[in-house]
Amino acid sequence: MRQFEDDKKVIIMFLIPAFAFIFIFLLYPLIRTFYNSLFYILQNTNPRYVGLGNYQKLFTDSGMITAIWNTLIFMIAAVLIEVGLGTVLAILINFIKRGAKFFRIVYVFPVVVSAAALGLLFSLIYNYRVGLLNTIISWLGYNPIRWITRDSSLWAVIAPVTWRYVGFYFIIILTAITKIPKTLYESAEIEGANRWQKTRHITLPLIFSDIRISIIIAITGVTKVFSMVWIITQGGPMNSSQVLGTYLYSVTFQRRLFGYGSTIAVFIVIFGLLLVVLTNKLLKSDDDSGYGTPGM
Amino acid sequence: MLSSFKKTGLILIVSVLFLTLTAPVSYAVDLEVFTMFGGADPASGAYQDAISEFESMYDVDINDDSSTMDDSVKVRIENAFQANNEPDLTMYFTDEQASPIINSNNVVSYTEEIFPEYPELKDRYLEDPLEQQCWKDDHIYGIPVTGFYEGLIINEDLFEEHDIPLPTNWGNFITAIERFNEEDIVPIGAGLGRVPHYIIEHAILVMAGAEQHNAGLKDGVPQGWIDGLNLIKELYEMNAFPVDTLNMGWEQPREMFRRKEVAMLPEGNWALGALSENYDTMTILPMPVPPEGRGEYGSIIAGFTSGFYISKDAYQDEKKGEMVIKLVKHLTSKEVMADIVEANAGLPSVKGINVNDLEGLSVVEREGVDLANLASSIVLPTDAKISRPAFQEIVDGVAYIVEGEKTAEEVLESAREIEMEARRGEE
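ok -> structure tokens follow
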């Protein structure tokens, strides 16, 4: 018993620095952000208490509503493209014997390039006069196209952002696939299963929990999307590609409304948590269906 | 293989060398300085030379954090003052944007404390530039460096090549838009979706006139402001702007102007440095006034809206106080000011500088200075008259107005509501 108590002290001693770090750099800013959200603060001066006024404004602000809506579309695209395509590529790469390493590097490469560099690259690709796309179109004898319009801007930013992360989920899923015991596939082969049947009945069920985690990471990641959208469109034209991250920046840094900006930040945290809980609930029943996990 | 003795000796020598090279040199005074003369600013070279010269004159180390301005840098500076973590000397805006700096109560009043003790600092200034620095309480907290002016920068050779008269009146201006459209040249370079600032200021000035332009939004929305924003819509409908104007920043119109794809560029003197390749074929003119406009041809947006703020803590510090004043005197000396004017083509704020004597200035830069000196009236920019969120509402609203999604009245009424809310916060 005495020995256990000593251990407890040691454990607490080791936990304190980490807790202090989390409290100072995460919890305190979060509490402070919530406190600020109850004030009208312009340029960080003369805060004026407005109670829940900023929260009421949140749901009547057309810019915010557009940002929420666009973020939801972004999330669906992130799940389908980032996780979906990442999974498909991982399964396909697992089939091939030669050149797998090359494709692994190619798919993962965009993940290691900075978002700012990719944002700049895509803003040049979309450029009306000197952009890559319009140069190709001109070579083919057609007139140049405005790639970033009110109707297309959201997709113009979804494409590079989701493309960038395909490689990230590809690696997660590929790692999960490689952990599946080869004996399962060999048994299936003896039973006469083809590739599709092996994928459908062995691979997918055994990597499902990894796919679920990937979906949750992809969804929460979208609430943090900022750099590439800001560089390519700044949320425009006319808020058409505004997402929560860019709208938060616009309100806080361009308009200098620190109180309202804090309200948006609090909303993003709650929104992210709600989506994680919801996604977990929606996917939980499948996970409990007896397929097990690949960590065996 | 090296013997252990040799290894130890080698490690010791390397360690001593490393410590010698990296050991901080101690100076009598360390000063933290922030200015807008950083990065690609045309005056950054002249400023760096001035700082190096000052460091060689005194036992001082200047920790220079200068940077070109963007919203994140502005917020960083504003927050530094709010947190009483401000630099010892800061160059920042002195117009409406100075509120967080001055309200922080962390800057010294030149009027009350510095000028009485150092009258020679006040005496070196021209009267107008110094008067423009007066805050709402009649105190001066920031003393100016160089002033700015805005105008219509013209690719003159394009006008000559296509036999189009220069836009010295509204008729010529409209003719130029029509003719350049026919020639597949963009008439006016501006990004209406992201940074329509200069076209907003010009349009409001010519339609509202100086008096209404200066009125701001506190007493209602002036008709001239509505007319100004509607003028931008008219020009947009005439295809006066680039096809992708709604998704452009300020860099692209400048680049297009440099490459002769744009005929006219509403910008300020700070843009001239980036257009140096075109100096021989450029001129700068005031924005022409439409027949229904209340403005006067020759009235321009200009002024002295930035200056040096001295931190209270630094001024009251035994060592720093004297040194920071010496630095301000050095940076606002006639010689340094002349170098900066030569670099950024700005307006000198101190006595004894004749721009005609500055050999480094190009013809177009001299024309720019003349434009300001000969202006029928000078008004400060729109964002110097209204609060930041109200101005941003107008900036964001321009795209909606030109696309017909909102009216100018709607955008300005919304900006006025925001303005009134911001002013309530000040009280």
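Residues 345 and 366 of chain B are 8 Å apart (CA to CA).
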